[in-house]
Structures are given as structure tokens and as C-alpha cells.
Amino acid sequence: MHYRRLGRSGLMISELVLGTMNFGGPTSKSESFKIIDAAIEAGINLLDCANVYANGASERIIGEALKRDGKRKDILLTSKVFLRVGDRPNDAGNSKYHIMEACEASLRQLQTEYIDIYFLHRTDFNVPQEESLAALDLLVKQGKVRYIGCSTHPPWRTVEAFWIADKHHFPKFVCEQPPYNLLDRRIENEIIPMSRSYDLGLITWSPLAQGMLAGRYEKAGEFPENSRGTQKDIYAERITSRGVQMANELKNLADRKACTLAQLAVAWVLRQPAVTGAIVGPRTLKHLTDMLPAVDLELNDTDFAFCDAVVPPGTYVSDHFNTAGWK
User: Fold this and answer.
1) Based on CB atoms within 10 Å of each CB, which residue in 47, 60, 134, 197 is the most buried?
2) Active site includes 53?
């Protein structure tokens, strides 16, 4: 495993980040334990979670797994706040009330005293960023959060947050977490340049484009059992005919390089400017072990040119910002 500096935080994180959205959903607790143990053994030192994954089951499984094997000190742990977790009016969003309540709940479920990186899962246009950053500042001062980040934010909101942090001496985001893959390259237009200018870490999600870049789908609208496309309508929307077609073209390159399409897709993300790490969210232990060789897969200029010809830089054939609201 290789490690990279996460922006100005100075943290060294593994190129592969273990995504845990499947834990407690299609992935059983026992299989989740095996995946966590294998990831740590392989050198992955960052586990990415959110309070809404499997209605909190993912956090509970991680907490139990790390307590069981005593590896909490060996890894960095994230969680997120914003999405709705209950029926009460204030059970969602980035208000100080919800951020404080959600963080306490995540700490209990994760069975930890602190969260290494706490993300605003999405931006909240109904709440001034001063309010959200003040809450995160308090959590940092209390020792419950060590670093803060943002996920799938408009770049102008991220920069605005830097200005507010300068003005009020609040902590700054150390990382943005946007979607990025060979079928949705739009972060190359503004988010990657912003990250390079402000030395902001980039941990990208969905490198396999909902499984299209793992060869999971033969056509849009036909979803194999337990595939991501079967779980939510917003996931199914991302699986497009054009995306499946482009994935098939990219498989020709993978075949020539004697690797899997999934390994090619992850390796490509890791070779892009400013990217710190890529989140892989395995459903099974085999999915994880099959992905590990991607960190050592070499790509050359001819390979990059082939990919650019299939889906040109800055464009997309699969909308992975469809949960953002602002894109």
C-alpha cells in the first residue's frame, strides 16, 4: 500500500480508502468484519463511514469490529452529518443543533471517543456556513473531532468556508470528497483546480461508477441481484446506456493491460492530479482483494489518451452529482 499527504492536515492516508456503505445492508456483520480485518492487513488506514449508512448499522459494525480487534489506534475513522436520520424537524441539515446531536450519536455507535475526520455530507443552503463551522469548531475544541471535511460541495461554497474560517479562526476543511470516475469527470473543471490551489485533500467516491466500471451491468435498467442499482432510485439513475457502452469500450484497454476493468478504473483515478485517495466500497471480501492490485497498476500516456477519447476530460456520461442538488 502507498500513502499520500491529505492536504494541509499532514495526515498520511492510504491510496485506497475502505468505504463502508454496504456494511449492515447487503453485507452481513460477519463478512464486514472480514473485510475490515483484510483491509487493515493490506495497509488501508482510513475507514470512511456516515451516520446514514444502513440506518446506522454501518457505524455500529465498525465500532464493534475495531473494539473486537483493538485496531482503533491503527486507523483513521470518518463519519458524516447532513442527511435525515429521524422524523423530527431538526433531524437533518447542517444546523449547530443537528451537527452536535449527530456527532454524539456517531461517537456512541462507533464506540470511540473521537472521529478523525468529520464531514458535512452535503452543503446546506438553508444554514449560514458560520453556523455550521462554529459547531464543528466546538467539536474540535471538545476533542470529539480532530479534522473536518466536506463532501460533494460546490467549489465556491468550499472557498467561502475558507474565508469564514480565516475571519473567525475556525478550523478549515482538510478534504473534499466528490464523486469521480472515468464516466463522470466533471470535478476536473473546477474542484480539482480549487483543491490544488488551496492544498485541499481529495478523497473521491464511486471510482467504479456504481459498478458500471466493474462490468456489473449488460444494459441500463437491468440490475443483477444485490447490485448497487437495486438499492435506491438515485443509484439506478446513474446507470445509463451511454455509461454501459463506454465501460465496455474501456474494458478493451483493461484486457490489453491484463487487468480487470475495476482495477483499471481505480488506478486511473489514483493517477489523476490532486487526488489523495479513492474510496472502494466492497460488498464481499473477494471484491476487496480483487481491488488491491490497482495501487500498483502502471498507466502510460497512451492509456490516458485512450481514456480521454472514450470520455473526454471534464465531461460525463453518468451523473454522479444527482444527489447534490446544486450541479
Assistant:
1) 47
2) yes
